[in-house]
Amino acid sequence: MKYISEFAKGFMGLFQSGAKTFIDWMGSIVPVVLLLLVLMNSIIAFVGEERMNKFAKFASKNPFTRYLLLPFLSAFMLGNPMSFTMARFLPEFYKPSYYAAQAQFCHTSNGVFPHINPAELFVWMGIAQGVEKLRLNSMDLAIRYMLVGIVMNFIGGWVTDFTTAYVCKTTGIQLSKTAEVTAD
């Protein structure tokens, strides 16, 4: 009976610990994420969706804007998973590469911009908590992680271009390299 009682106590302790963490987040990170989302949606509404779409088409024209600028801005403005929708402005050939760069960016920027990927914020917060226990600045780590991530995301996107070209060549499939955006 003692083992069952100890198991029940530990099981409830797990939920009590989770509830305490949740309440802590409600007083700290959740309002920040909410206000960042409001800001981003306000900027998009102010700039206009059509202008945002034109920018995305422009950014799809070369690898630097396609895998550095467009993923950063779409993740910052739209967050995960909406940032992937900007791929609709890209030619079919570049969509896998954009997805590769974008998917990675949504993770590597979470420490600096928590609104980008709030669903996985707990991962970053766990790491930050360990860093802070060592009396180190977690923002320094977040910025370094994001900067290294930006470079690696670009490389990942560009390497995926070569992979896509290889797959197209070996399968005989031709993917368009010109953007054809149609109105919804």
UniProtKB/TrEMBL annotation:
It comes from the Bacteria. The keyword Transmembrane helix applies. GO terms for cellular component: membrane. PROSITE patterns: PTS_EIIC_TYPE_5 (PS51107). The keyword Membrane applies. The chain crosses the membrane at residues 25-47, 68-90, 142-168. Pfam families: EII-GUT. Keywords: Membrane, Transmembrane, Transmembrane helix. InterPro entries: PTS_IID_sorb. One of its GO terms (biological process) is phosphoenolpyruvate-dependent sugar phosphotransferase system. This is PTS sorbitol transporter subunit IIC. It comes from Xylocopilactobacillus apicola.
